[in-house]
Amino acid sequence: MSPNKQRLLSLDILRGITVAGMILVNNGYGESFQMLQHVEWNGMTPCDLVFPFFLFIMGVSTYLSLSKSQFKATPAVVRKVVKRTVLLFLIGLGINWLDHAIGGDVLCFDHLRIWAVLQRIALCYGIVSMFALMVNHKWVLPTIIILLVVYGIILLTGNGYAQDSSNILARVDIRLFGTEHLYHKSPVDPEGLLGTISSVAHVLIGFYCGMLMKKAATVQEKVLQFFLVGAVLVIGGYLLSYGLPLNKRIWSPSYVMVTCGLAALLQGILMVVIDLKGKKGWCTFFQVFGINPLFLYVASEVLAIVLGHFGVSEMVAGAIRSVISYPQMASLAYALYFVLLNFILGYILYKRRIYIKL
Q: pLDDT > 90: what percent of the chain?
C-alpha cells in the first residue's frame, strides 16, 4: 500500500521529526543534558515538545483522513475508528506488560500501569474522530475553548498544580484505578485520565488547523494559516501561563496553546522550505520516521525493553563511555545510536514501500 501522493511532504517531515525526537529523548543512557530531560514540574524544555507535536499532527492527519469519506459516520468508518482506538490502547498496555514480563513478572496484572503515551494517543484519536463524524464542524473552535476553560477551572479549584497526592488529577486516578496501576515516578500520572480533557482539545486544535489547511486554495494560503494560528496560540499561551503555568505533567491549558502554536509555526516553516522552495534533499531521514510513525515508535519501545533486559544497552553504553568521558555527551551518543537503529528498520520498510497502519 502506498501513501497518498497528493499529501504534502512537509506533513510527513514534521511527523518524522517528532517521532525521531520522541525516540531520542526517551533513550538517553545515564545522565542527559537538561534540554533532553522533561521538566520536573512547571516550565518546559525542548524535550517537552515532542509528544504534544505528535498529538497536534495527529489532529491534522485525522481531519485529512476522515475528509476522504466526507466525515460520514458509515458503519465501515466507525468500525475503523473503533478498531484503531482499541488496538492502540491494547498495544500500549502490551508494552507496559512486556516491561514486567520480560523479567519474569508475567502475571503482573494487579500492578500493571494502565496509562502511557499510546493509551493517551488512543483516547484522543477515538474521541476526536467520533466528534468529527458526529458533530457539525462549526463547533470545533467553541469545543476547544470550552474544554480548556473547564480543565483550567478543574486545575484551579482542585489543587491541580500541587506536586503531591492532593492534586485532583492524582486523586481521581487513585480513586478509579488504584495506586498500583499508575505511574510511580511522580505523584501525578502524566498520562492520567483527567489530563485527557486538555489533550483532546490539543488534538482538536490540530484538527482545526487541518480544516483551515484543506480549505486554503494555495500552499501560500496554507502557510499563512499556520503562521497566524501559531502566533495567536504562542502569544495567548504565554499570557495565560501567568495564571496557569506551563506544565507537561498535568497538560495545562497554557502548555496546550504554546506547544500547538509552536507546532503550527514549525509546520508553516517546513511548508515554505519543502513545499514552496522545493528544498527536499535533507528530508529522507525524517520521511522514514514520518511514513511509519506509530510502528517505529512501538518498535523503539519494544527494542529498548529487550536490549535493556539482555544487557546489550549497558554493553553499548559502556563502549561509548570508554570513548566519551563526558557523561551527558555519552548519553546523547547512545540516544543517537538508538535512533539510528530504528532508522535502519524504518529505511528497510521505506525502500520496500511497506507502510504499516492499524
A: 89
- At 354, list the grid cell: 511497506
Distance CA 86, CA 235 (A): 36
pTM given for the model: 0.94
Supply 144's cell numbers: 476547544
Contacts of 278 (CB under 8 A, 6+ apart): none
pLDDT at 186: 87
Phi, psi of 5 (to 5 degrees): -70, -15
2 confidence band (pLDDT: 50, 70, 90): very low
Length of the chain: 358
- In angstroms, rounded to a whole number, what is the distance separating the alpha carbons of residues 80 and 259? 29
pLDDT band for position 229 (cuts 50, 70, 90): very high
Cell of 263: 507546532
CA distance linking residue 128 with residue 117, whole number of Å:
16
The answer to whether 274 and 14 have CB atoms below 8 angstroms apart is: no
Angle between helices 196-215 and 117-134 (to 10 degrees): 50
Question: If DSSP codes are grouped into helix, strand and coil, which group holds residue 213?
Answer: helix
* pLDDT class of 7 with cuts at 50, 70, 90: low
Round to whole Å and give the CA distance between 313 and 307.
5
φ, ψ at 42 (rounded to 5°): -70, 145
What phi, psi does 247 have (nearest 5°)?
Answer: -160, 110
Of the candidates 47, 39, 58, 59, the residue with the CA atom closest to the CA atom of residue 21: 47
How crowded is residue 278: how many other Cβ atoms within 10 Å of its Cβ? 9
Helices then strands (H, E): number in the chain?
A: 13, 0
Containing 84, the helix (H) or strand (E) segment is helix 75-101
